[in-house]
Amino acid sequence: MSKIWIFIFFPIISFSQVNKAEVDALFQQKQYKKAEIFLLNYLKNDPNNIQAQALLGDAYGYQKQWDEAIDSYENVLEKETKNAQYFYNYGMVLGMMAIENKLKAMMYVSDIKMAFIRASELDKTHIDARWALVHLYMKMPGIVGGSMTKALQYAAELKALSKVDGYLAKGFIYEYDDDFAQAEVNYKKAVQVGGSLTCYFSLFNLYEAHNKPNKAIETLEEAQEKLNQNILKYQIGKVAAKFQIQLEKGKRNLTSYLENFKIGDEAPESWAHYRLAQIYRYQNNKNVALNHINLSLKALPNQSEFKDEKIEILGM
User: Fold this and answer.
1) pLDDT tens-digit profile, the chain (316 residues)
2) Which superfamily does 229-316 belong to?
3) Whose C-alpha in 9, 52, 152, 231 is 20 to 30 A from the C-alpha of 311?
4) Does the CA dihedral 180-185-190-191 come out positive or negative?
5) Region of 96 on the Ramachandran plot (φ > 0 left; ψ -120 to 50 alpha; else beta)
6) 222: which residues sit within 8 A by CB, 6+ positions away?
7) Residue 280 near residue 308, CB atoms below 8 Å
8) What is the pTM of this model?
9) Residue 291's CB: how many other CB atoms inside 10 A?
10) Contact 243/259 with Cβ under 8 angstroms?
11) How many CB atoms lie within 10 A of CB 230?
12) For residue 35, which phi and psi values (nearest 5 degrees)?
């Protein structure tokens, strides 16, 4: 399943094995400037290497050097007109620039749309391009071509390629259109068909956004039973603290989250302590609440939510 608008590319390049390993390592280590310099030097000796030029565009994009990235990809597309991935990457560069620069966004809408449509036409199985078009048609104002009908069309194409992507796309469309019932139906179908963390989180986020905390917790518990992911325990505790419900369950899950915490877990320990501090405050246990919020502040002393929570606790 796709995660749209996250700017991560995994390009395939035709360098020697040693050079490929070096470029891949630089990207993985987020040393994008070094990758840029490496590629510029490489292109001095092989200026017509299209794949290297495209990879240079990616290196610029990682650094948010949008004009350079766009120039690189426009140069690539002048020579390579049948590569769906290049059109998709070009659309992503334009899209990320548009997100950051609202003044330029309207100028590039037609180019972004063209790039993703061309990618979808060149590769009838390109899931990411169709996801991008679903997002684009829903988020564009109607005056410049936004269309729920078009978004649903690409969702149908996604479903033909991957049922779970199709249901997730339709869920996103209806959620964006404020149709809770249809969004819920499609996210539930995605859970039934795919059962992945992405599917469960899509349904959970819908419930949380619409102030349905008990359904949110129920969804998270079902996911935890099937997937056994530590982050789900944190989310259960977060919902309990945020909505002041099922507090004992919230405490158990947050405590377990901290006991099983590993580097790389999505929610920092400081936020789990913050949620525990909230729950203990609700239960009028000032000393334990203060202990947890102090642990949060030790890690992130300038976090406004943590500072506000300590004031609440001290005022008990």
Assistant:
1) 444 443 333 333 344 433 656 777 888 899 999 989 989 988 888 888 888 899 899 899 999 999 999 999 999 999 999 999 999 999 999 988 888 877 777 788 889 999 999 999 999 999 999 999 999 999 887 656 689 999 999 999 999 999 999 999 999 999 999 999 999 999 999 999 999 999 999 999 999 999 999 999 999 999 999 999 999 999 999 999 999 999 999 999 999 999 999 988 889 999 999 999 999 999 999 999 999 999 999 999 999 999 999 999 999 9
2) Tetratricopeptide repeat domain (1.25.40.10)
3) 231
4) positive
5) alpha
6) 200
7) no
8) 0.85
9) 15
10) no
11) 18
12) -65, -40
Structure tokens at 136: 């684009």
Which residue bears the tokens 């796709």? 2
CA distance 257 to 275: 12
Identify residue 102 by its one-letter amino acid code: K
Please give the structure tokens belonging to residue 181.
């019932």
Architecture category of domain 8-101 in CATH: Alpha Horseshoe (1.25)
